[in-house]
Amino acid sequence: MTTTAPVIPPASAAPVRRGDRQPRNRPTRTGQRRPRLALFILLLGAAYCLIPVIWVVVASSKSPRELFTSFSFAPGTGLFDNLTSLSQYGGGQFWQWGLNSLLYAGVGAVASTLVSAMAGYALAKFRFRGRELLFSAILAGVLVPGIVLAVPQYLLLAGVGLAGTYWSVLLPVIINPFGIFLCRVFAAAAVPDDTIEAARLDGAREVRIFGSIALPMMTQGLVTVFLLQFVGIWNNFLLPFIMLSDQDKYPMTLGLYTFLSKGAGDSDLYPLVITGSAVSVIPLIILVLALQRFWRADLLAGGLKG
Amino acid sequence: MSASPTTSGVSAVNPKRPDVPATPASPRSRRGRSRLREASVPWAFAAPAIIFFVAFMVLPIIYALWLSFRGYRVEGGGAFGRRVETFIGVDNYVAALTDAEFLAGLGRVLAYGAIAIPSVLGLALLFALLLDTPRVRLQGFARTAIFVPYAIPGVIASLLWGFLYLPSTSPANFLVRQLGAGPLDFFSPPVLFFSLANIALWSGVGFNMIIIYTSLRAVPTEIYEAARIDGASELQIALRIKVPLVTPALVLTGLFSVIGTLQLYSEPATLRPMTTTISSTWVPLMKIYQEAFMNDNLGGAAAASVLLAAAILIFSLVLLRFFQRKTFGAAS
User: Fold this and answer.
1) A149 — phi, psi (to 5°)?
2) How many CB pairs under 8 A join A and B?
3) Which chain A residues touch B308 with a CB distance below 8 Å?
4) pLDDT of amino acid B34
5) What angle do CA B279, B285, B286 make, to 5 degrees?
6) Could you tell me the fold of the domain covering B99-328?
7) Would you kindly state where each structural domain of chain B is located, as residue ranges?
8) Are A196 and A124 in contact (CB under 8 A)?
9) In whole angstroms, what is the distance from residue A216 CA to residue A210 CA?
10) Fewer CB atoms inside 10 A, N or C side of chain B?
11) Tell me, what's the pLDDT at A209?
C-alpha cells in the first residue's frame, strides 16, 4: 500500500482543511511540520475503504471469462453484456428489487421519522403523568436487539394474514426507539417553549403548532433520523428474509443474496451478482454523500451525555 | 415530573392555582379547554409510536417469552402417543443451554466480537484523532472515503469481500498465483474469524469515526491551545485530553457494536455459499432461524432468542457500567 505515498503534493500546496478551528493567520511556530505519518495513515484507511468498491465496479465490466483470468483491477469488456443479462434475469427482477428497496426504505423511513418526531416532541415539550415511564420503556427498547424480534414478529403477522406482504416489511420498521430518543433530544434543544406558548396564545391548535412550528425547527435532526433509518432499512436483511417468500417482493439485499445462493457451484451467476452489487451500491453512495452535510452526528454523540 | 398532586394527567396545568406561573415546558391554557383534552394532547402525539411500540416490540417479546415455555410433549405413551403442544416449563431453556451447537455458535460470535469490536473502535478512534489533528492534508477526502462503506448494506459488503476472499476472484490470490504460490485460504478457521471481523471493520469504522470525530469537534479549542502553550505535543494532547473527552461517544459506539455483534447473521449467511467452513448453524441467529423455520421448533427458537437478547442486555449493561465508572468515577 506504499504506492499511495507519491501521490502527496508538495508540503506547501494544500491549505489546512480544518482551518476554521485553528487560528488561521497566526505566524507558524517553529517545528510545525505537516504530520506526514498522520496523512499516511489516513490515506491508508481511505484506500482500505475504497478498494473493494473500486474492485466491484471494475469487476462488473468483466466478461465471465475475464473475471477469473485477468488481473483484478484491469477493466474488462463485458460491462454492457453484464448489464443486459442482469436486466433480463427473471424478467427484470433486479430492477423490481431496486424499486422494492426504495419503497421499503423510503416509505418506512418517512413514516418512522414522523412517528419518532411526534413522540419525541411529546416527550420533550409536555409534562404529563406517565412521561418518565414511557421514556424509560422506549429507552429500554433501544437495547432490545431488533433482529431477535423478527421470529415472533413473523408469527404474529402470520396470525393476522400479513406475513409475506409488503406490509410485513414496512410496519415493523416504523418503530425506531433510538429515533424517538434522538427526536426528544432534538425537540428539547431546537424548539423554544416560548414559541410554543406564543402560538398557543394566538389560538393555534396543537397539531398546527407541531406541524408548522416545531417540525421545521427540528428539520436538521429529522434528516439525521431519516438517514439513519433509511440506511438501516435498506441494509436490513433478516426481516425481509424471514417475512417474504415471493421473490418479486424482495428488496435488493435479499435478491442479491438469493442470486449468490443459486450461484453456489454455478460460477456463471457470479458476474451477475458482481454487476448487481455494483449497480445497487452506486446510488446509495451518492445519496449518503449528498446528504452528508445534513448529517448531524453531534446529535448522536451528544445523546449519551444526557 | 408528575409530582403535582392534581388529578389531571398534565401536572403543569394546575387549575386550582392559576396564579402559579407555568413551568417552561408547561402548556397553560387560557382558552378554557377541558382538562381531559389538555391531558390527551401529548398522548395523542405519542400514540402512533406507542401503538407500533406495543405491536412490534412489546407483543413480540411477550409472545416470544410465552412460546419459550411451550413445546411438544408426547401424550398417551407407546406407539399411540400423540404430540401435543403444551406448557413444558424451562425445558426449552435447558435444551438451548445444553445444546452444543448453540453454545458453539455463541462462542464463535464472542470470538468474532473480541476481534471485531476493539478493531472497529480502535481504528475509528485513531482516524477521528487524525482527522482532528491540525495541519494534516486531505482530511476532507479521507473522512468521506472512510465513510463510504457505511452506505453499503452488510449483505453487499459481505458479497464484495467474499469475492475478494474467494480463491478464483481474489486480487490477493491473483498476485500470489503470479508468484507461483498456492492459494490463500481466507475461509478456514481461525482466519475465517478475521475475515468476518474485517467485513465488520470495513462496514463500521466510518460511521463510528464520524460519531467520535463530531464529539471531538464539539470540544472548545482553547483547551488544546492552553496545552500547546504548555509545550504538550499533539500526541500527548490526543491521549491525555481528547481520548478522555470522547469517552461518552466511545461508550455509545461500543454499545451499538456489542448489540450488532451478537446479532451477527447476514455476513456468515452471505459467505456460506462460497465455502464449506460455515455451517448452517454457525452463529446463534442461524440456529434460531433453523429451529423456527426448518425444524418447526418454535419454543426452542423462542427460548434461544430470549437467551440471546438477555446476553446482549447483560453485555450492554456491563459495558455501560464499566465506562460510567471509568468516565465519571474519577471525578466524583
Assistant:
1) -75, -15
2) 348
3) 145, 148
4) 63
5) 30
6) MetI-like fold (1.10.3720)
7) 35-87, 99-328
8) no
9) 9
10) C
11) 92
Q: How far apart are CA B186 and CA B184, in angstroms?
A: 6
Residue extents of the structural domains in chain A: 93-303
For residues A257-295, one letter each, b for 16 or more C-beta atoms within 10 angstroms of the residue's C-beta and e for the rest, the string is bebbeebeeeeebbbbbbbbbbbbbeebbebbeeebeeb
Which residues does chain B have within 8 Å of residue A43's beta carbon, measured at their own beta carbons?
Answer: 138, 142
Residue B34: half-sphere exposure toward Cβ, Cα within 13 Å: 3
C-alpha B74/C-alpha B231 separation (Å) is: 78
Q: Could you give the dihedral angle defined by the CA atoms of residues B220, B221, B224 and B226, in that order, rounded to the nearest 10 degrees?
A: -100
Q: What is the pLDDT of residues B180-190, one digit of tens each?
A: 777 777 887 78
**pLDDT confidence tier of residue B215, bands split at 50, 70 and 90:** confident
In this complex, do B151 and A284 lie within 8 Å of one another by their Cβ atoms?
yes
Chain A contact for B219, CB < 8 A?
no
Q: Rounded CA gap, B73 and B64, in Å?
A: 19
Nearby residues of B67 by Cβ (< 8 Å), 6 or more positions away: A152, A155, B298, B299, B301, B302
By residue count, chain B amounts to: 332
**Residue B43 banded pLDDT, cuts 50, 70, 90:** very high
Closest CA to B317 of B262, B260, B264, B258: B258
**Mean pLDDT, residues A142-168:** 85
Pick the CATH number of A93-303 from 1.10.540.10, 1.10.3720.10, 3.40.50.150, 3.30.420.40: 1.10.3720.10
Determine the longest span between alpha carbons in chain B, in angstroms. 90
Handedness of CA A246, A252, A257, A262 (dihedral sign): positive
| Rounded-to-integer distance, Cα B262 and Cα A127, Å | 37
How confident is the model over B79-106, as a mean pLDDT?
A: 84
DSSP label at residue B70: E
Give the ipTM: 0.81
B154/A155 touch (CB, cutoff 8 Å), yes or no = no
Name residues whose C-beta falls within 8 Å of residue A26's C-beta, 6 or more positions apart in sequence.
none
Q: How confident is the model at residue A115 (pLDDT cuts 50, 70, 90)?
A: very high
Alpha-carbon separation of residue B211 from B46, B124, B132, B203, B217 (angstroms): 28, 9, 13, 14, 10
Cβ contact A298–B26 (<8 Å): no
Which residue of chain B has the CA closest to A153? B60
Give the whole-angstrom CA distance, residue B63 versus residue A60: 45
Across the strands, what pairs with B73?
B84
Dihedral, CA of residue B150, residue B155, residue B161 and residue B164, to nearest 10: -130
Taking an 8 Å cut-off on Cβ atoms, the answer to whether A148 and B301 are in contact is no
Q: How confident is the model at residue A16 (pLDDT cuts 50, 70, 90)?
A: very low
Average pLDDT, chain B: 80
Which three three-digit cell numbers place residue A237? 436483511
Maximum Cα–Cα distance for chain A, whole Å?
75
Point out which residues pair with B87 in neighbouring strands. B70
